Amino acid sequence: MNKVKPANVLPLTEALKMAEEFQYATGSFSPRYTAMIKPVLQAGQKTASPLIVQISQKELERYGITPFEFADEFYHQVAELAITVPVVLHLDHTKDLQTIKEAIEAGFTSVMIDASEKPFDENVKITKEVVEYAHAKGVSVEAELGMIGTTDFIETDKDEELYTNPIEAAEFVKQTGVDALAVSCGTAHGVYMVREPKVDYDRLSEIRELTPVHLVLHGGSGVPSEMIHKAFQLSNGGVSKVNIATDLELSLLKAIGREERMTNAECKLLTLDELQAGQDAVEETVSEKITQFLLSDNKASHFNQ
User: Fold this and answer.
1) Residue 90, SS3?
2) Using the 8-state DSSP alphabet, how is residue 192 labeled?
3) Residue 255: helix, strand or coil by DSSP?
4) Of 26, 23, 106, nearest to 60 (Cα)?
5) Rg (Cα) of the chain, in Å, rounded?
6) Catalytic residue check, 92
7) What is the pLDDT of residues 217-262, one digit of tens each?
8) Measured distance CA(131)–CA(128) in Å, rounded
9) Consecutive H or E run containing 189
């Protein structure tokens, strides 16, 4: 099922070019539940901000969603809400080519292959195969080099951390032809409970100096805004995409008075009042991230110039 995509639904590369040129970061928001796609898009529209809506392979499995279900709801809401800001539909951390193929068939405009736990040469081989397949379909590819830690195991399997080597990053990009690179330089997926968030700006700057592709910072939830600002305002560019997932889910759960995560099916059983409260909370969180954290508000107009 190859969807006819609206003109404002873009590959990742087109969205991130503008972020680099005008020194802001594009937020890659993971609603995790299909009902929370709507408030993410609403926040982008109301703040006139480009944005990325994403979900990872582990999130698809954990919340009981297929790539087709997620994509169908995304495109339905883009049409229903008359969304005009630039948006990307992105498949985050994914380990196997079959899931990537399903996502592309469903209408995702960007995918991430994460073979970062593999030896360098094997990571290159796997990533290159995905790049060749996706590029033939007009889809952007993100990959990861180094290992980004986690605290909740929702997006990745292990809490291992290995900072990205700048020289290896340059060689990896050269050999794979990847469009964007997630780098490990101090942040982690999930909630910071013991460790403190940090960013190795010198390492990030050196990677930026040696690689021509867009750089991605995973683990944006819980990181102070000034750290993120510095990461995309480095003199040579820095990152142009920041992933945010946990903060959205926490705001949803708090709004409905729930502590435990749900499945997508359980979310659909919320009362109308609960659903509205959750959506309002998610929209508020995304709007705050856009205006205070990413500085991407009122940047959508650049795409029309």
Assistant:
1) strand
2) -
3) helix
4) 106
5) 18
6) yes
7) 887 666 788 888 998 998 788 999 999 998 999 999 999 999 999 9
8) 5
9) strand 188-189
Residue 237 and residue 265 in contact, taking contact as beta carbons nearer than 8 Å = no
How many Cα neighbours within 13 Å face the side chain of 222?
Answer: 21
Between CA 189 and CA 160 the distance in angstroms is 11
Rounded to an integer, what distance in angstroms lies between the CA atom of residue 118 and that of residue 147? Answer: 10
> Which of the 8 DSSP states describes residue 193?
S
Tokens found for residue 294:
């990413």
Q: Name residue 277's amino acid.
A: A
DSSP β-bridge partners for residue 174: none
Query: CA–CA separation, 64 vs 84, rounded Å?
Result: 29
The span from the CA of 187 to the CA of 108, in Å, is 26
pLDDT in tens, 120-150: 999 999 999 999 999 999 999 999 987 655 4
> How many other CB atoms are there within 10 angstroms of residue 192's CB atom?
16
Instruction: Say which of 72, 92, 202, 297 is annotated catalytic.
Output: 92
The DSSP bridge partners found for residue 258 are none
- Under 8 Å between Cβ of 270 and 26: no
Q: Is 202 exposed, middle or buried (0-12, 13-18, 19+ CB in 10 A)?
A: exposed
DSSP β-bridge partners for residue 162: 147
pTM (predicted TM-score)? 0.91
**Sole residue written with tokens 């926040």:** 43
Would you tell me how many other CB atoms lie within 10 Å of the CB of residue 281?
Answer: 20
What three-state secondary structure class fits 176?
helix
